[in-house]
Amino acid sequence: xxxxxxxxxxxxxxxxxxxxxxxxxxxRFYEVYQTETFVKSVIDYxxxxxxxxxxxxxxYLTGYTIDRISKVERNILRLAVSxxxxxxxxxxxxxxxxxxxxxxxxxxxxxxxVNGVLKNFAVQNEG
Length: 127
Hints:
The protein is built from seven helices and no strands. It has helices at about 5-15, 30-35, 35-50, 50-60, 70-85, 90-105, 110-125.
């Protein structure tokens, strides 16, 4: 499975387990979590560092709290920040992938919002 597909599945898993709506082991695509190392590592990183990841994202939201942004945007940002923090992936690649996912799953302007938050996050976390 290509990395883009893995990111989409990781997003879909995060979306399902958001606010404990579904337990991870009962989530659709759980088998991907079990078989794809990248998916497992990003999901596990988020679960183990939830508060830190959410606080990081919250620091780049103006006029919103993490709970007030859409569930799609919230979980795309969680995926991207978790990947950046746990894998040291190239920032441009992670932002581009997050924007693609936002275009597919989000509202009309979700990709702009996700792009803006992640670019600000990247600038503040350089070097």
